[in-house]
Amino acid sequence: MHFVEPTIYLIGETRVNENSLQEYLKHIGASDWKTDDTSEVEEIIEVMGRNCYKSFGTELNPNITSTRKGNKAYIDNIIKVGHGSVLEHGFLNFMFCDVSRVFTHELVRHRPGVAISQESLRFVRVDDLGCWVPSAFRQTGAYNIFEEHWKRCERAYQILLEGAAVYEGVAWDKLSFDKKKYYTSAARRVLPLGMATNIGWSCNIRSLRHIIEARTDRHAEEEIRFVFDKVARLVLSKYPNLF
Q1: Is 139's pLDDT higher than 90?
Q2: How many alpha carbons fall within 13 Å on the CB side of residue 202?
Q3: Residue 7: in which H helix or E strand, if any?
Q4: pLDDT per position as a tens digit, 169-224
Q5: Residue 201: enclosing H or E segment and its boundaries?
Q6: Which helix (H) or strand (E) holds 18?
Q7: CA-CA distances (angstroms) from residue 89 to 4, 221, 224?
Q8: Verdict on whether the full-model pTM lies above 0.90
Q9: Residue tagged active-site, from 138, 152, 215, 218
Q10: Are 41 and 205 in contact (CB under 8 A)?
Q11: What is the model's pLDDT at position 2?
Q12: CB-based contacts of 188: which residues, under 8 Å, 6+ apart?
């Protein structure tokens, strides 16, 4: 076993197809429109929002006499008036690594606007369990208790799989993939809920703003608060007009 600390990686984000965007702007008569966004995620949200009222300029819609200039001013107003559906057009793709199943069980409670792909303990054999120790027990120096328990769970898991191979009468490596999956799926039940795992998590901007607010609250569970503090700091720096 080994001790870990959760980490996050932003591995993808909404991109703008510039050629098609220019064709669209030409189609509606707004070829001269430009924006001053700091990212393509912010740009696509502005474009989708302005499309609603044709507010790329006052000449496109007789009902309007002025438009907000600049990406920040436009998005600030979108957020102020609660036009949240526009924010759903921007998507971010994260990988959360060395997080516990405690964390992932909390994370999957957020369903609207997200997509999830979690490391499967049915398919993936675990040979070296990772452990993150919460501050409540870090402060008491109880690392040895976590370490001993993780090692026992790790060993119990190994014994179960070794026993399965003996029962089948072949070395583990010689088992078919279906057999490996069968036994790995069953043996995972002895692994601790706090074991480190990885989860891919994608989210639209509207949902992410809500989740950051909820999960960085001082009453949030410690690990998910720790992770979403990292998320918040990252998106604040990368997408300042949206956060």
Answers
A1: no
A2: 13
A3: strand 7-13
A4: 999 999 999 999 999 999 999 999 999 999 999 999 999 999 999 999 999 999 99
A5: strand 196-204
A6: helix 18-28
A7: 34, 29, 25
A8: yes
A9: 215
A10: yes
A11: 96
A12: 121, 122, 126, 157
Distance CA 1, CA 195 (A): 10
- What's the gap between Cα 83 and its chain centre? 23
Q: Which of 50, 43, 48 is nearest to 14 (CA)?
A: 43
Q: Which amino acid is at 43?
A: E
Rounded CA separation 215/210 (Å): 9
Q: What are phi and psi of 203, to 5 degrees?
A: -155, 140
Q: 166 to each of 50, 160, 175, 201, 224, how far by Cα in Å?
A: 66, 10, 11, 38, 41
Comparing CA positions, the residue from 36, 8, 9 lying closest to residue 240 is 36
Residue 158 buriedness (CB in 10 A; 0-12 / 13-18 / 19+):
middle
Query: pLDDT class for 141, splitting at 50, 70, 90?
Result: confident
- How far is it, in rounded angstroms, from Cα 232 to Cα 216? 9
The answer to whether 155 is a known catalytic residue is: no
pLDDT mean over 126-132: 95
The helices-and-strands tally (H runs, E runs) of the chain is 9, 6
